[in-house]
Structures are given as structure tokens and as C-alpha cells.
Amino acid sequence: MDTLLDTHAAIWFFEDDKRFSKSAKEVISDLNNMIYISIASLWEIAIKLSTGKLEFDGGIDGFIEAAHKNEFILLEISPKHIKTVAALPFIHRDPFDRIIIAQAMVEDMIIMTTDDNIAKYNVNHIW
Predict the structure, then answer these.
(1) 5 three-class SS
(2) From the CB of residue 116, how many other CB atoms can be counted at a distance below 10 Å?
(3) Three-class SS string for 40-64?
(4) Is residue 109 left, alpha or beta, with left meaning phi > 0 and alpha meaning psi from -120 to 50?
(5) How many domains does the chain have?
(6) pLDDT number for residue 20
(7) What is the mean pLDDT of residues 64-84?
(8) Whole-number average pLDDT of the chain
(9) What does R_g of the chain's alpha carbons equal in angstroms?
(10) What CATH number does the domain containing 76 carry?
(11) Which of 112, 100, 99, 97 is nearest to 19 (CA)?
(12) Taking the CB of residue 85, how many other CB atoms lie within 10 A of it?
């Protein structure tokens, strides 16, 4: 199963946060599943780190290192993803979540998230 982590899901997983569900951990630990993190999440984290809204051990380099260490795949943003964002209904206002939704639709992935607004789109999601 190809799974795209929402930004908060990736952070919670890397930080072993108690909010990260047992079932989500099982999805990630299943070697049959491919786990992806959007480049948009890196961008979002970089912004939050620079504004002081987020702290992550090692900063953005630490986050990228954690992704590589866990063998997560960084998903680039393509023109097809951008075109899909343009066609999305304006339910979710967060631009980072909108591109993650579009990427999951285009790439036929499941989004791992707790965000109820993502569930309002025609996209598979789990938690």
C-alpha cells in the first residue's frame, strides 16, 4: 500500500509522539507498504522552523535524515499535481494539505492523517 504521510503524521512518527496511533505504526512497519513524504511537507516544516512555530531535533536536515533513515520516499511535486490542486473544491484552505491531497489523488495513494478536512475530499485516508 502506497501511503503519503501528512506533515503532522511524519513529525509525530519521528518524535515517537503519543498521538501517533498504533494502527498507523503498523502501516509504517509493514515492509509491503511504501511510505512517502511530500516535498511540500519539507517546505512547510522549513517555514515553521524558521518562524519558531516548530522545533525538530537537527532542524530541517534532521527531518530529512529521519526520512532517509526510515527509508521513506520523498515525493516531488509535478505539474500534474499542481493541475489537480487547481481543480480541487476549496474545502481545505491550507496550501500544503491541498498539494498533499492532489498528490495522493494523482499517485493513487492513501493519506495518513488526523485532519478531518482531508476526509471531505474524494481521497483515501487512514489513521
Answers:
(1) strand
(2) 9
(3) HHHHHHHHHHHHCCCCCCCHHHHHH
(4) beta
(5) 1
(6) 95
(7) 98
(8) 97
(9) 14
(10) 3.40.50.1010
(11) 112
(12) 17
